[in-house]
Design goal:
- The chain is α/β, with parallel strands linked by helices.
- The protein has a single domain, classed as Alpha-Beta Barrel (TIM Barrel).
- It has 11 helices and 8 strands.
- It has helices spanning 22-33, 54-68, 83-96, 113-126, 138-141, 147-153, 169-176, 213-225, 228-245, 249-258, 275-288; strands spanning 5-9, 39-42, 73-77, 100-104, 131-136, 159-164, 184-187, 203-206.
- The chain has an 8-stranded parallel barrel, surrounded by 5 helices.
- The radius of gyration is 18 Å and the shape is globular.
């Protein structure tokens, strides 16, 4: 497996009073559209989905497809704590024209393998005509898809892949060993783009690439070239931006502002970067934007 796709996890802009910033969100989408990355993952963790209303998710889904679908594939996250919400969001995404969706495991209450099996079976049944990605994020949801359960879920109709966040690449390899050959696996670990394919992944779904796509494009090109020196240089740049942004949505919004993009502010309880962090973000913009 040699693909190293970069799917950008896209932030959403909000105004200081917490209102959705439609113009700022559109500006972010247009920046992502020009990145050269293979796809976009919208309304996920980086998009602060738990803080969005049903109506806002519908509006942002339509806007994302409008701005991005001519340039890249678009995976719309439709996850929620309850199955009823997820089914409504699947219908909403389908009506907007989405063809690829992702569904995070239910969260807050613990879910057994049997409960997760029933949940994703219902998602599968409701997703005719859509490609569905299972979103595994144990550290945020408290629930995990075991290797054995992934093997079962991968056989369900319409379930075509998984995004796996904050798990070691060895877990990707364990999934790869039990799912069909065409089942797509993506790691949420930005810095692992270069070696994710060695563990059976198609690439990364990366929040940091939403603000700094160039180092990721350079790393993908360097790995494709096979030049060890170029790979090492490109990996250092990716490591630098990953460490500087640290997956922090507030830092991403600050980077947009430094680049002259009206990316708004977070809606959720996210710390504002201090002066030392701001200086590091400015340095990264000077080097990599």
């Amino acid at each position: 497996m040699t693909t190293r796709d970069i799917i950008t996890a896209v932030p959403v802009a909000f105004r200081p009073d917490g209102a959705l910033d439609v113009d700022g969100s559109r500006a972010i989408l247009r920046y992502v559209a020009a990145s050269g990355n293979e796809g976009a993952f919208v309304l996920g963790t980086t998009g602060e989905f738990p803080a969005l209303t049903y109506e806002e998710r519908g509006r942002l889904t339509a806007m994302s497809l409008e701005e991005l679908s001519a340039r890249m594939r678009v995976i719309v996250h439709v996850g929620a704590p309850s199955l009823s919400e997820v089914l409504a969001l699947i219908a909403q995404a389908r009506e907007a024209g989405a063809t690829e969706i992702a569904v995070i495991t239910p969260y807050y209450l613990p879910a057994s393998d049997a409960a997760l099996r029933d949940f994703f079976a219902a998602v599968s049944a409701a997703s005719e005509g859509l490609d569905v990605y299972i979103y595994v994020y144990r550290k945020r949801t408290g629930n995990f898809v075991s290797t054995e359960l992934m093997a079962e879920l991968a056989s369900l109709p319409n379930l075509v892949g998984a995004k796996v966040s904050e798990e070691p690449l060895e877990q990707i390899a364990a999934y790869r060993a039990v799912v069909p050959a065409g089942f797509e696996l993506y790691t949420g670990a930005d810095r692992d783009l270069g070696n994710a394919a060695d563990f059976g992944a198609q690439g990364v779904i990366s929040g940091v690439s939403s603000v700094f796509p160039k180092p990721f494009r350079a790393l993908a090109a360097a790995v494709a070239s096979g030049d060890p020196a170029a790979i090492a240089d490109a990996q250092r740049a990716v490591d630098d931006v990953v460490e500087t942004v640290a997956g922090d949505i507030g830092r991403m919004k600050t980077v947009y502002a430094l680049m002259g993009i009206e990316g708004g502010v977070p809606r959720m309880a996210v710390e504002t970067p201090d002066e030392q962090t701001l200086a590091q973000l400015r340095r990264a913009v000077d080097l990599y934007a």
